[in-house]
Design a protein that fits this description.
Elements lengths: L15 E2 L2 E7 L7 E2 L15 E5 L15 E5 L5 E6 L7 E5 L3 H6 L7 E10 L8 E8 L5 E8 L4 E8 L7 E6 L6 E2 L4 E10 L4 E5 L8 E3 L7 E9 L13 E12 L9 E4 L2 E6 L6 E6 L4 E8 L4 E5 L5 E3 L6 E9 L3 E8 L1
Antiparallel strand pairs: 1-2, 2-18, 3-5, 4-7, 5-6, 6-18, 7-17, 8-14, 8-18, 9-10, 9-17, 10-11, 11-12, 11-13, 14-15, 15-16, 19-20, 20-21, 21-24, 22-23, 22-25, 25-26
Length: about 350
C-alpha cells in the first residue's frame, strides 16, 4: 500500500461472466451505518477492511475538517446502503478510501483480459458552493500515474475524465478533460448516475461512459502499457487561483465493480447505440426509479418483462423516469423503442 498517494481498492470477488472477470465489488450493504473507520491516518483498517485518510493540507491551509466523520456508511435512499465521502472545507487537503489486493487479483487474471473496467453509482445531491471534486482513479504500481479516472464537481455537477496523457503542447502528466463543450457533461442533481471508466493495458486507451457522455469517448493515454495496481475513491479541494473553495462537498458512492475484460463490456446494460438511436439507462442495478434518456430520437415506449416473458410494466408517457416501486427484486428485460429502432436490455432490480 502506497500511503503517500493514498490509493483505494474495494472487496475482491472471483467469478467470471461473459468476457469479463470480476476482480472486486462492494455494495456496502453488509456494513454498519456510521463511520467507515476509526483512523484517518491510513494505518488501521475500518469496516470491511477499508482504510481511510483525511488531510487538511499543508500550511498555509484554510481547511479544518479532517476527521473520521468525513467517511460514512449511509442509507442510499434506494433501500440499500452507500458510502458518502465529504471533502475539504478550504483551499487544500484531500480525502481517500482504499483496500489492498487489486495488484494480486490483476496478476491472476485470465490471459488476454487486459482491459480493467470500473463502474460505480454516484449520487450527486443539490449543487453547492463547494468546488470539491469527487471521483475514482486507477493508479499504476508507482502511484504516480492515473491510468484512468473521473471526477465530479459538486458546485457544477460537471463530469470529467482524468488520465496520464500528453495534451498537445504539454508535457506528459495527469490531466483532466471536459467531455463536451462548455458547460460540459452535467450530471443531474439529486439523482443517481452510473459512471464507467476503463484502461486498456495493450493500447493505453482510456474510456469513460455515463449519462450525457458521447459514444466512443476514448483518450489515448501515455502510460506505457502499465499494469493497474490500485483503485481509489479520491476527493480533492478543487481550489484554484481563479475559483476559491471555502466549503465541503459530499457525494455518495454505491455498487462498485472492478472487472478485467478482453473486450469493451463497460456499462454494457446501461448505454447503447442501435440504428443511430443512442440511449442512456441508469442506474443499473436500480431500486425505485429507472432513468432513460436518448440524445438522438424521441422514445415512444418502454416495456419491462420478467424472465418468464410476462410484461410487468409498460410505459408510453414520461419515459425519462420510470417508477419501479411495485417490482420485486430480480432480473428483468427492458425493451426501449423509438419510431425507428428497438433495443432489448437487462435490468437488475434490487
Amino acid at each position: 500500500m502506497n500511503k503517500k498517494l493514498l490509493i483505494l481498492c474495494t472487496a475482491l470477488g472471483a467469478f467470471t461472466f461473459a468476457n469479463a472477470q470480476s476482480l472486486q465489488s462492494e455494495n456496502f450493504n453488509s456494513l454498519t451505518l456510521g463511520n467507515v473507520g476509526t483512523d484517518i491516518t491510513g494505518a488501521t483498517a475500518g469496516q470491511s477492511g477499508l482504510f481511510t485518510f483525511a488531510s487538511n493540507g499543508t500550511a498555509p491551509t484554510t481547511s479544518t475538517n479532517a476527521a473520521n466523520s468525513l467517511f460514512q456508511i449511509v442509507s442510499s435512499g434506494n433501500a440499500s446502503k452507500g458510502m458518502s465521502i465529504t471533502g475539504p472545507n478550504g483551499n487544500a487537503g484531500s480525502a481517500f478510501v482504499w483496500k489492498s489486493g487489486l495488484a494480486t487479483s490483476w496478476t491472476g487474471r485470465t490471459t488476454g483480459n487486459n482491459i480493467i473496467e470500473v463502474e460505480v453509482d454516484v449520487y450527486l445531491g443539490a449543487l453547492s458552493t463547494s468546488v470539491n471534486k469527487h471521483g475514482i482513479r486507477i493508479f499504476d504500481a508507482a502511484g504516480t500515474k492515473t491510468l484512468v479516472g473521473f471526477q465530479v464537481n459538486t458546485a457544477t455537477g460537471e463530469l470529467q475524465l482524468i488520465a496520464y496523457s500528453t495534451p498537445t503542447g504539454n508535457p506528459v502528466g495527469n490531466y483532466s478533460y471536459a467531455l463536451v463543450a462548455a458547460p460540459g457533461v452535467i450530471l443531474p442533481p439529486n439523482s443517481w448516475s452510473r459512471i464507467g471508466i476503463s484502461y486498456n493495458k495493450t493500447t493505453n486507451a482510456c474510456t469513460i461512459k455515463g449519462p450525457g457522455v458521447p459514444a466512443n469517448t476514448i483518450l489515448a493515454g501515455s502510460s506505457a502499457n502499465a499494469d493497474p495496481d490500485e483503485v481509489d475513491f479520491v476527493v480533492t479541494s478543487g481550489h484554484s487561483t481563479t475559483i476559491a473553495n471555502t466549503a465541503a462537498g459530499t457525494i455518495i458512492f454505491d455498487n462498485l465493480t472492478v472487472k478485467a475484460s478482453a473486450t469493451d463490456t463497460l456499462l454494457g446494460n446501461d448505454n447503447f447505440t442501435t440504428n443511430g438511436l443512442t440511449v442512456t439507462m441508469y442506474p443499473n442495478p436500480a431500486s425505485d426509479i429507472l432513468n432513460i434518456q436518448s440524445e438522438t430520437e424521441e422514445l415512444t415506449k418502454v416495456s419491462i418483462t420478467d424472465l418468464n416473458g410476462r410484461v410487468v410494466k409498460e410505459v408510453s408517457n414520461n419515459l425519462s423516469q420510470i417508477s419501479l416501486e411495485n417490482l420485486a427484486k430480480g432480473i428483468y428485460m427492458v425493451t426501449i423503442e423509438s419510431a425507428t429502432a428497438k433495443k432489448l436490455e437487462k435490468l437488475i432490480v434490487e
